[in-house]
Specification:
With about 100 residues, this protein is an alpha+beta fold. It folds into 2 domains: about 35 residues; about 50 residues. Helices cover about 40% and strands about 30% of the residues. The chain has a 4-stranded antiparallel beta sheet, with no helix packed on it. Strand 2 and strand 3 form a beta hairpin.
Length: about 100
């Protein structure tokens, strides 16, 4: 009976210690990720205001979807009598970086 109590106590301490280790690892990895250069480089883009960006698109053009990543916005444009296209915008500088035009083969 005494050995069983010792085993249960030992296993309980192992569980508590393991949870403490997992918590410590999550805290240190999370703190390191917050201070990484990648995050610091992207953060000003989301805080800044670059004013008004005017895209010259034909009448009837609509935005099908918008995706943002790494300080850039990808606009999926359709219609306007032109082929489907994706416009890449630099959010930090407020300018168009390029276009991807989807044409049939």
């Amino acid at each position: 009976m005494r050995a069983l109590k010792a085993l249960v106590l030992f296993m309980g301490l192992m569980i508590v210690g393991g949870l403490g280790l997992v918590g410590y690892t999550l805290m240190t990895k999370g703190a390191a990720k917050l201070h990484s250069p990648e995050t610091a480089a992207v953060a000003p883009a989301s805080e800044g205001n670059f004013g008004t960006l005017i895209l010259s698109e034909p009448k009837g053009t609509t935005i099908a979807s918008v995706t943002t990543a790494n300080g850039q916005a990808l606009l999926h444009l359709v219609g306007g009598g032109v082929a489907e296209r994706i416009v890449v915008l630099d959010l930090a500088q407020g300018r168009e970086r390029g276009r991807i035009v989807v044409t049939p083969p």
